[in-house]
Amino acid sequence: MQNWDKKIHVKSSLKPKPTQYALFIGRWQPLHEGHKALFQQALDEGKNVWIAIRDVETTESNPFDAQLVLQNISNEYKELCGQGRVKVSIIPDICSVEFGRGVGYDIIEHIPPTQVGEISATKVRERLRKEGKL
């Protein structure tokens, strides 16, 4: 799959270490091929990946509770979790990601290629509902 473009909003002056992680925060409702492509790009760049699951209220657009999302993502990345390349955890619901100067890490926006950008968790949930799986 084609790589995502990157827009670096803040560039760290520090050299990355192999024990660090690229942090991805989301609802992952559900985890889909677009999410996996994003994580894979970071893994292919030699980065470890930390997938943080926002503990959001269960609603029509968030049909899976955070514990189920954790279980599903952990199962998907079982081998890489065992190797320490991927970590998955639940975090409180957040309203913003904020930082001070000299944070010591990059802040990168990933812009998906067209075919990945068209993948929609909303459409995945609609399909699952039609199939009686949700």
Report on the architecture of this protein.
This protein is an alpha/beta fold. The protein has one domain: Rossmann fold (3-Layer(aba) Sandwich), CATH 3.40.50. Helices cover 31% and strands 24% of the residues. The protein has 5 helices and 5 strands; from the N terminus they run ββαβααββαα. It has helices at residues 33-44, 66-76, 78-82, 114-117, 121-130; strands at residues 5-10, 21-26, 48-55, 86-92, 107-111. The chain has a 3-stranded parallel sheet. β2 (21-26), α1 (33-44) and β3 (48-55) form a beta-alpha-beta unit. The longest helix is centred in the first third of the chain and has 12 residues, at 33-44. The chain is globular, with a radius of gyration of 16 Å. The model has no long low-confidence stretch (mean pLDDT 91).
Features of this protein?
134 residues; Rossmann fold; 3-stranded parallel beta sheet; 5 helices
